[in-house]
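FW: tagging you since you asked about this chain on Friday. Here's the raw sequence from the shared folder, copied in full. Didn't touch anything.
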Amino acid sequence: MDHFREVALGLPSATEQDHFGGPSFRVNGKIFAQLSADGATGLVKLKPEQQDWAVSTFPDSCSVEPNWGRHGWTRLALQGLPPDLVRDLVTQSWRAVSPNKMHGLLQN
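HL: got it, structure written out here
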């Protein structure tokens, strides 16, 4: 949970705001990631090919969100994923939601 939050808030212009009792992370007012209230799972928005890869490569830890999955929202069981992968998925989610002009602000 701390790692997910640290990654999300480390992205340019990211803010944290409550969303139905759990933390959400936003850029320009748009949600790019969420944590469950207990911090066990995260939610990120991915491109279809990224979502397919995550779900097929980590089927025990990544799943398509039932209601919003067709829009790229992917649930992550955080304990089952390597920290570097969590960082990459949260960053990809930020890219999916943030304005293109902000992408140059990312430090690789």
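FW: The helical segments are 2-9, 48-57, 83-97.
HL: agreed, and The mean pLDDT is 92.
FW: great, closing this out.
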